[in-house]
What we know:
This protein has helices at residues 11-61, 71-78, 84-90, 93-98, 103-107, 113-118, 121-126, 129-144, and strands spanning 156-160, 166-171, 177-182, 186-191, 198-203, 209-214, 218-223, 228-232, 237-242, 249-254, 261-266, 270-275, 281-286, 291-296, 302-307, 311-316, 321-327, 333-338, 344-349, 353-358, 369-374, 387-389, 395-398, 405-409, 415-419, 426-431, 437-442, 446-451. The chain is α+β, with helices and mostly antiparallel strands. The strands form 7 sheets. The chain has a 4-stranded antiparallel sheet with strand order 1-28-27-26, with no helix packed on it. Strands 2-3-4-5 form a 4-stranded antiparallel sheet, with no helix packed on it. It has a 4-stranded antiparallel sheet with strand order 6-7-8-9, with no helix packed on it. A hairpin with a 5-residue loop joins strand 22 (387-389) and strand 23 (395-398).
Amino acid sequence: MCAFVVSLSPPHTNEIRRTRTNSFRRSQTERETTTQKHIHHTTQNKHKKEEHKIVYITHYLSLPYATHNNFLEFGRREGQTIDNKEIQFFFNFNYISQHSLQRKDILKMPKRKSDEMNASPESTSKRSKSTAMTTTTQQQNEDEGPKRTSKLQAPTMLLQGHQGAIHSVKFDSSGKYLASASFDRSIFLWNVYGDCENYMMLKGHKNAILDLHFTTDRIYTASADKTVCIWDAEVGSRVRKWNAHSSFVNSCCPLGKGEPLVVSGSDDGKTKLWDARSKKVVKEFENRFQITSVAFAKDGDTVFAASVDENIRAWDLRNDSVSFTLKGHTDTVTGISLSPDGNHLLSNGMDNRMYIWDVRPFVTTPSRCMKRFEGHSHNFEKMLLRCNWSSDGRQVSAGSADRCVYVWDVSNQEILYQLPGHKGSVNEVSFHPTEPIIASCSSDKNIYLGELS
């Protein structure tokens, strides 16, 4: 006999259970809804506070004395409590950009009148004038970058266009224009300021141009086609051509602004004196070895001629004789240049040395050599690397085969600048007549304009 026990619940019990379950679910839903409303309300308040802070931050950044240090003080005047973390957070540009605010728009926001009224005169007087000037200067430096020393469009400008090695580069006397001479037989004229456009090209030589000088409206060139030429820089035409040399003309030099005399030196060993008003040679001085560089004395009575025999001879034009000889280099002299005051001569040699000589007429000391400069180099190319003075006579420069630009201080013979950038031998470095700007030309077919600090 089997017995089955069945437990039956009264019907009202299941209804009670369903009612309790529904009420629990309803109360839970209400609690979630209430919580979401509370979170939404809190979020709205937070966003309102953040928006108020954003407006406060954006207005604060528009003030001229806006710095990190006085941020909290400004916040206390506005009734805001902002800690260091929030300062860093609000100063983050990404946060500003997330709220569709641009920094240029922030800095242009006008100042509110309430800020001027709420700012107490005591707090304003506490901030000294020197602090305000310092913070303003710092903000200007941050906006403008490093302090500029010239009117160049950029601290370094690259000029390209020549199809061959560039042997010489010179500024004109005003400093507005630049001329360059190249192996490609052309002369380029450039604007120094603005975009440095190449506004004129002169052609007429049949071989490489080895030396160039630029006055106000005249350009003087020496070429491997055995000629010396004078060009009108304004019109762009050739004014004079001399072809009395029998070999490459390595160098030429005019006497000065407005003077008609020009001197040239050639591989034929001759130094020739020319008059722009005549087609014939005025005077001629002969040497046993090739002439690599020439220069005029300031008074116009002496011509300096550097040679492959390591010497520099001073020819007196009044009696057609050598007045003195400068000896000291142990290899070929590649370039010479007269100082702005006319008392000293700078020479560069393949012995990797530069010398300053005293070339005044009456010198009683045994040696005319005054100073020596080292650091640059020559190599197997045996290029005619030139040297130059700054307009004030305090600095000298020279080309170098190690692809660097060298500038020395005359007073202590120390290297002030050793500037890389070129990819070939630097053949000449010239100084701007009025600004701290140098121009360098190289065998890499490039010209660099750079400002000095």
